[in-house]
Task: structure prediction
Amino acid sequence: AVTMRTPGHDEELALGFCLTEGLRPVAARLPDDLAANTVDVDAPDADLELIRRSFYTSSSCGVCGKGALEAVAVDAPRVESDLAVPFAVMAGLPDRLQHAQATFALTGSLHATGLFAPDGELRCLREDVGRHNALDKVVGWAFREGALPLAHGVLCVSGRLSFELVQKAAVAGCPILVAVGAPSSLAVELAADRGVTLV
Result:
């Protein structure tokens, strides 16, 4: 896979991307030659024949470059969670997210994803030029922490809710996805199908 990204937490990005694309990574590491600008991922059980599209990604919407929606149907079981979060907590998450964005405060140019506890406590925040990358970095962090599935967490993203962001949240097992921007109709359909609440 090749992606445009904001450097930092690159192993998390690689792990999260592989997880949300249906691969089964076990580890990621930077190679000795850091100038190569790559991350090596170990995924010994990955069935690459099942992946029918080339892994050239961008920081924009991931669905646009895929031939058909079926091509992005990652195996994600329906999210089963009894998590209930007060509306006041969810409504405050975008402000909490923005206040925690150190690089955005300096540049005004990066997206972010935050993983929050049900009481609104920030557990993990990652920034990236791509909103999909920011979410992949959080998923990669959760994988490394042994925190997947995110059945008792809330994800908050700094942009609109696309189909692919909902897909990534579903793969991570997160029952609630909060965003600054509105969801697309396709994102709403996928969320209803996978048991993810959109706010």
About this structure: DSSP finds six helices and seven strands in the chain. The mean pLDDT is 88.
